[in-house]
Amino acid sequence: MTSSKDRIITALGFEGQVVAYIADTHDLVEEMRRRHDTWPVVTAALGRTATLGAILGSTLKHEKHQVTLQVQGDGPIGRILVVATGSQTVRGYADEPHIMLDLKQNGKLDVSRAVGTEGSVTVIKDLGLREPYRGSVPIVSGEIGEDFTYYFAVSEQTPSAVSVGVLVDRDYSVKRAGGLLLQVLPQTPTEVIDAMEKRLAALPSMTTMLEDGARLEDILTLVLGDDVQIVNEQSVMFACTCSKERLAGILQTLGHEELTAMREEQNGAELVCHFCGEKYQFDAFELQALIDHIHTNN
Q1: d(CA 76, CA 62)
Q2: Of 40, 48, 111, 257, which residue is 20 to 30 A from 129 by alpha carbon distance?
């Protein structure tokens, strides 16, 4: 687990009819960039997804609950997978971290082209029930924010606005990262929705506001007005659940024949965690112990 200054604020506005979640996720996204050595457009795509994952994780009621976000497009990145937990931790990866594309005409990273415009966005919520909740919708743009706006409207029937952004510096490090999720409660009058949409349309991007020094509380006031009511604040950080013991269990599923071949031909094995990039070494003696364990339990 890494230390982090990142935080997520939950607030109410428009007399309690609009719920806002706003996040500063710089440290989280930078840690993922560092671990996976992502190039700028991948950093942006993965960072946007991780930011939204962090926000959804902040809504979970129990530390063992978790939400998984999967973006599977037809672009060169492949799959983006992010898992957030009720203990305010996030982990994730993209299939292809090293993608380099020309910038768009406006000078922005071409996240849509990297992700693709055909495919699906899937959210899986494991809330400790018999079956996890699973919702899936088609990708609409590949920009991540627009795709999840569509997901909330169609799969969860919740009118929402999503703004997520990652500003990448010249040395490929993350300069700013953050996101905003607005959700309208049922029976909210149309004029309230219209007023909220006008305020959103007049706002600069999340990363622009953060780069200009705006605090999360300042941005909430711009969106929700002076009657904004902050109801919760949480920290969030990168953390992975992998361990040598857990990966040893995965090795055992290969069976004694494959483990024996690894021991004899490679004199050991190396497993790398997809989510954090951590490498785990198993020498010949450890592989033999796993083989013995399989024989003992058969």
Answers
A1: 36
A2: 48
